[in-house]
Give the backbone structure.
Amino acid sequence: MSITVRNLTKHYGTQKAIDDISFQVKTGEILGFLGPNGAGKSTTMKIITCYVPPTSGTVEIDGLNIFDNSLEVRRKIGYLPEMNPLYPDMNVLDYLDYSARLHGVEKTKIQTRIKDMVQVCGLSSVRHKDIGELSKGYKQRVGLAQALLHEPEVLILDEPTSGLDPNQIVEIRNLIKQLGLAKTFILSTHILSEVQATCDRVLIINEGTIVADGTPAQLQQDFKGAESVTIELRTAASDPLGQIAPKLRSLTSVTGVELLSRKDSISRFQLHVEKGGDVREAAFRLAVAEGWVLLELSTRSTSLEEVFHKLTMS
Amino acid sequence: MNALPYIYPIYRRELQSYFNSPVAYVVIIVFLVIIGWFFTSSLFLMNVATMSTVFDMVPWVFIGFVPAITMRLLAEEKKTGTIELLVTKPIRDVEIVLGKFFAAWTLLAAALAPTLIYLLAILPIGEVDLGPVFTGYLGLLLMGGVYVAIGVFASSLTENQIVAFIVTLLIVLGLFLIDKMLMFLPEGLSTTLEFLSVDYHFASIARGVVDSRDLLYFLSVMAFSLLLATVSLERRKW
């Protein structure tokens, strides 16, 4: 089930929600949609699920167009909208039954599918309760169960883990990973660790345009800038900035030294290192030669968070 | 029905939601109390055993009741956002509209049904002509259907239930009162306007004659309102 999005543009009045977006998702791929609030993630998803039409451009799911084959397209999709809207007056089982019927699940299969979903999504303890009485986490699971019920080939989940506690987030992620092998996923989030944990590919979107596209590792590689090394030393020096910093600065590939903190005899520095350089060994030898006690030496590379920050904060 | 297989699940859920909440019971009870009061006062105070008070009063009561039961049909789904999940299911918008229409119409019929008790009560004591009673009920159902269809349309316009209520009330009241204002209008217009009046056609049916022109009127106003509701629901696609 491949999804092809071509030159998608959507205006709300005079405001451009998305601007000429094109991308493809292959079968079995889990695509993470990343972007600040209002970047156009939800709008793109609403267009793919046939909720709102694009101003121009088109979406095809396995060659089926959202305009000409709207019903076919919708049949293939399981959708969890952003606010996870549910009917508070229905109980969980009734609601799942209703969803299954609207998705045209065969009558003989409805009961088994519901039973499966209640189990997979961990709803058995609340299955007879009204949805309005459930906690946010359980509601989210009901939304997810509803999206998975008819065994769709494409799953579109708008912020599937919002409102969940850390344990539930891990559960949902595992569920997505487990299902992701056979299905095509698009999920949006603004939690970066989530993308790293679940997605095969990331699309960073900002102000309606795609600013980056690749695997999480690729993006980190591409946007890797200068690294930084933190070093903590115990010395007898009374003036670390004057006595130690220049020596650290003189190491090869160090471009700058900052004193982060100083407490009694312990000083903490941050060394800025040029791209590709590794200063740790030299720093260690320097410390030994100078008789400093090395308490900490750590390096930090660009995280996806920084990539995201760089791309969306221009 | 097979061409539109999803009307039934929508209908069933909507009806369940009426009967799971106090709405249905409040509607039925208040309806019976009001109609019962008029019926018994004519029976005991005026000593007349007749169903005609029922047929005189129900159209008025419908004007207030129908907007109350139809206002939430689509407006609530829009307000809470459930409409997004509903219309992204592989179903047609017209199925949503028809399912909700039939559910509200069923509730109206359920409120009307217990008034048959009054008929049973006067059968032994008065001379009741069953023909006009039968067509009278048919007329009430058709009239109610027109109101419900208008209510569904009004509910599709807005996410505010109060707005939906008021719009329905105004349209329905207008349709009902047209033929009572004909005296103020030039004669040429009055026959046309009379044909638009829902009460004119109801009165015609309630006399005991089911004329195809009256049936055509009721069914076409219903169909037209439901068409408008469907178009209005599809408005998001423009």
Chain B has one domain: 7-237. The first helix of chain B runs from residue 7 to 20. Chain B touches chain A at residues 5-6, 9-10, 13, 16-17, 20-21, 80-92, 236-238 (CB under 8 Å). Chain B is about 75% helix and 0% strand.
